[in-house]
Design brief:
Blueprint (H helix, E strand, L loop, with lengths): L38 H10 L2 E8 L22 E3 L6 E3 L3 H4 L5 E7 L6 H10 L12 H9 L9 E5 L5 E3 L12 E5 L15 H22 L2 H17 L12 H7 L3 H14 L4 E7 L7 H25 L6 E6 L3 E2 L11 E2 L3 E7 L7 E2 L1 E2 L6 E3 L4 H11 L7 E2 L6 E2 L14
Length: 429
Amino acid sequence: MLPCNYACNTADHATTRRAFLGAGLGATAALGADGFANPVHAAELKKAQKRVLVIFLEGGVSQLETWDPKPNTDTGGPFKSIATSVPGTRVCELLPLAAKQMHRIALVRSLNSQTDDHGVGHNVMLTGRKMEPGIVYPHLGAVAARLLNSNANALPGHIRIVPKGGSGFNGADATFLGPKFASVGLGDGKPPADLFRPANLTPTEDEQRDAFRKRLDERFAKSRKSAATDAYTESFTQAERVVKQAEVFDISKEPEKVADKYGRHDFGRHMLLARRLLEAGVTYVKVSHSNYDTHHENFDFHIEQLAEFDKPFSALLDDLADRGMLDSTLVVVMSEMGRTPKINDRYGRDHWGRAWSVALAGAGIKGGAVVGKTNATGTAVTGREVWTGHLFHTYLQAVGLDSTKNFYPNERPVPIADPKTAAISEVLA
């Protein structure tokens, strides 16, 4: 999570990420008979490779000001609902561009994530599991990187783009899957530190230095190889692969009109970078947008925050569709919780995990579907209640994975997704 002064002042927002230590489909089909890359086949593979993009609205976005508006009620707030590209489905007027994309989007309006805590909510939304003693489950990004990523891909399979700070390698989110599938964080969307070779170091000198390092690593590994040395070696190797793909991180390579379409603010830049990473073959990208923890002035904050969200979100869906990637890219808009229907005495909304919404689009998703409902004031789920486990199964099945299988850390079977839940079939195409 990011260092951020949320209104609730909980300790969950004071944590930082570790420093950076420094990947599908097989590559064979992308090669011609002479062993050189076939550009046509390579392009088709890129379109077919399944990917996941999570847009995480940090702090707890209000479902009432986004996907499940309740206008003209005591809890609904001042905003109207508007028609969308799907007849009969309405969203909050703060999302005019997303409303035009609703034929590509499925809404789950009946999520009960069973927690009102930031840290716990963040964990259960990204793991699909309640926290349990004796085991820590891997995040969705690590699972996607493990099950979807091609070994031929030079880039990491699991990347986080965060507004400020948060750069580096985070082994904790991969847990028993191992450091190969842990996330690399890009603070402010900037590439990892020391990505480019120093100007005073020639390519030959750089190669000689690397060869010397490898000899020392090999000698060390012969006598003192351990899980820690394996983790370091994997981190360094991953970083080395990233260095070779440095231009992917440079959004200045994009035409001016494309940058304008996404927006020149931080979140617009980060979403454009996410598209570049996905197109380059990264399996999972998580983009964070903060701050939605609106205990004070909920409505003013959502006007500002959702104006930043709406434009690049819509631009990204159009861009993925135009490039032939939307059918293979699952896009999820989530948060760690929703906001209370009751408006407090500071014109804010507090933490609320009992009845809120998530949006999905792209790969394997039935655009225009709306699943579940809440009552007239949004205080309770009244139809098709789902938990985070249902969502986790849904994400995996949407990209063609069997979510009922097991991982086997230390030869112990661990279900990939919560076996007490199942996919939300109504949103799967």
